[in-house]
Each structure stands twice: as structure tokens, then as C-alpha cells.
Amino acid sequence: MGDTVDVVADFVQARNRMVDEQLVRRDVDDERVLAAMRAVPRHEYVPADLTGRAYDDTALPVGDGATISQPYIVAVMVQALRVGASDRVLEVGTGSGYGAAVLAELAAQVTSIELVESLASTARERLLAHQHVRVLTGDGSLGHAAGAPYDAISVTAGGPTVPEPLLAQLAPGGRLVMPVGRGVERLIRVTRTATGDETEELLAVRFVPLRGRHGV
Ligand code: SAH
């Protein structure tokens, strides 16, 4: 029992260190995002043999070709999405479920789509306690029109361009963040304004490829 408490305390300490050293010291300053990153137990979203590395400054393989993104990249994406408490969010590429859990700390509703059934079902189990999160199995490059429009769309796999169906499902004022390009991608943000869509480049990143109808 005492050991269990110690292990949990170690993870909390590792997580706070992750936030302080990897996020605050760089350019993540949105307090809600930092609080979400302190709250979600990242070690529960990696395979058992990698829990000791869960708070490292790196992406980790989570099986079936998926990776749990580096904590900093998750934070940058979520911060760029400017997720509000009443927002409906779509995530493409559930993977481990970690990104969905972070988004769930910030939004009213999260729909996450994963192409690989085994990943979707593991993530679904991990996220069971979050009633405002649902994990769907399918081709997320098509989005999920039944739940549209979305205030924020997070695409966590890289493709040549932003899939047209995702743009069609973005709400007025909505934000979409996605790695675009081949090999080394650029993380871009599309913001829907009254006068049209504005696209900004945030940073160079490496993601697993977006597959499906509008993927690579
Ligand atoms: N957000 C994830 C990162 C997952 S890596 C996390 O926090 O762990 C990218 C994921 O996108 C992989 O699991 C891959 O299977 C998935 N993927 C690739 N193409 C997809 C598509 N068209 N639709 C849904 N998921 C897709």
C-alpha cells in the first residue's frame, strides 16, 4: 500500500517536472493547458514496459504504428487550438488516447477517430471515465459529419493537405491544427474568420502519416 502511494507520488512529481521543464521553459504559457497537462496521467497511456519513460521529452511508440506525441508537441497543438470550456472538439488519430484525454480537460465534448480498431478499443477503455469523450473507429480524414460543426479540430497524423471534409466541418471562428507536408511536416493552424480562412505555420514537426481517403 505504502509502495503504491509512493509510485503515484513519483508519477505526479515526474509530471510536474515535465510541465515545468519541457513546457513552461519553452513557450507554453496558457494556464488551462498547463493545468490539463499536469492533470492527465500520461503513464497510463503508454504500454506497461514504457511507463518509466512516460514523462520523457520525447514521442514513444504505442504499437500498431502509432506514437504518443512528445508532451511539448501535444501542448503546443492544444494551446494553438485555443480550446474553450464550451467547445466541441474533433481529434483525428486517437492513438494512445492521451491527446483526447488532454482535450477532455478543456472542452465540453470530444470526438476522437482512430483508423486502427485495436488502438481505438484500448483508448476507449482508458477513456471510459470521461463521459464527454467518445472514440470512434473509422477514417478520420473524412471527419465525422454527424457531430459537426466543431470549434476545434486536432489532426495528429501528417498529410499532404488539410482534408476538405475537415474544413467543411469547422465552425465559424473554429481552429484546425494539423501537420502538413511530407517527411518533415509543418504544423499549421487554420482559423475560420468572418472574412475567410487564415493559415499560419507554427513549427516543423514529424508525425506518423495520415491514411484514409484524404491521406497520403
Ligand atoms: N493523438 C495520438 C497520436 C497518435 S499517432 C496520441 O495522443 O497518442 C497518429 C494516429 O493516427 C495513429 O494511431 C494512426 O493509426 C492514426 N491514423 C492515421 N490515419 C488515420 C485516419 N485516416 N483516421 C483515423 N486515424 C488515423
Task: Throw out a few tags for this protein.
216 residues, alpha/beta, 7-stranded mixed β-sheet, two-stranded antiparallel ribbon, 31% helix, globular, binds S-adenosyl-L-homocysteine
Q: What structural class do the secondary elements suggest?
A: alpha/beta
Taking the alpha carbons of the first and last residues, their distance comes to 49 Å
| Number of separate strands | 9
Low-confidence stretches: none
- The gyration radius over C-alpha positions equals 16 Å
Strand order in the sheet with the most strands: 5-4-3-6-7-8-9
The distinct ligands, each listed once, are: S-adenosyl-L-homocysteine
- Residues in helices, as a percent range: 25-40%
Order of helices and strands: HHEEHEHEHEEHEEE
The major β-sheet equals: 7 strands, mixed
Average pLDDT for all residues: 96
Q: What proportion strand?
A: 25-35%
Number of helices: 6
Principal-axes shape call:
globular
Short characterization:
The chain is α/β, with parallel strands linked by helices. It has helices at residues 2-24, 31-39, 71-81, 98-106, 117-126, 164-168; strands at 60-63, 66-68, 88-92, 109-114, 133-137, 150-155, 170-180, 185-193, 196-205.
